[in-house]
Design a protein that fits this description.
9 strands, alpha+beta, two-stranded antiparallel ribbon, 2 domains
Length: 206
């Protein structure tokens, strides 16, 4: 790889010196080269949307789309939590967060349509998700479906610095946008053609 991949992570958009220092200490990521070779350990299937009525606790991670209502903060101190309901045409899903309540209270909007992604459970016979991911539905995201990469991180990064798997996914995506022209193919064209292989740049995008 070229000298481009020796560039320190702090120069990547949205990272900065403090976050770069933490990424180095916690995950051993110091340069563009380190990050671009940080591979996901699995993928979440986000190619399908489910109706609320079809959710059950034997499912793995799934996504639904609905309007959020009834957002409220319950309890105090360690028992403080944010609860809301997300409804579609088939029913209502209760969503709850026990961490980051003060921040979430500012950004989560009543009567907004969201894509909700998480692990469904049943509570008193009703579907529930704890700490789901939320994304506002826009024209670009209304019907999007994809396989979402999942990256290892650390409790310190995730809980205190908001560097979770999705944050690393965004960093890798931002890096790929500027890195692809710098990637040098390591296999000969004949070998790639003979075994129907994808090129290195394409493989990193996948």
């Amino acid at each position: 790889m070229s000298n481009f991949f020796q560039t320190k992570l702090e120069y990547l958009r949205g990272v900065g010196a403090q976050r770069a220092q933490l990424l180095g200490k916690e995950l051993g990521l110091f340069t563009y080269g380190d990050l671009i070779q940080r591979y996901p350990f699995r993928y979440f299937d986000r190619t399908q949307f489910y109706n609320v009525v079809d959710l059950h606790e034997d499912m793995s991670f799934v996504q639904v789309k609905g309007v959020l209502r009834g957002r409220e903060v319950i309890g105090e101190g360690p028992k403080k939590r944010l609860v809301a309901k997300v409804g579609d045409a088939s029913g209502e899903l209760e969503v709850v967060w026990f961490k980051g309540v003060n921040y979430l209270e500012k950004v989560i909007k009543n009567h907004q349509e969201y894509i909700v992604f998480g692990k469904p459970t049943m509570f008193n016979g009703r579907p529930q998700m704890a700490h789901p991911d939320l994304e506002e539905v826009t024209e670009q995201k209304a019907g999007q479906s994809f396989l979402q990469p999942v990256y290892n991180t650390s409790d310190k990064l995730r809980n205190y610095h908001r560097v979770d798997s999705k944050a690393i996914m965004r960093m890798v995506s931002d890096l790929l946008k500027i890195a692809l022209p710098q990637i040098t193919e390591t296999l000969s064209p004949a070998l790639i053609q003979q075994y129907a292989l994808m090129g290195k740049a394409e493989a990193l995008q996948q």
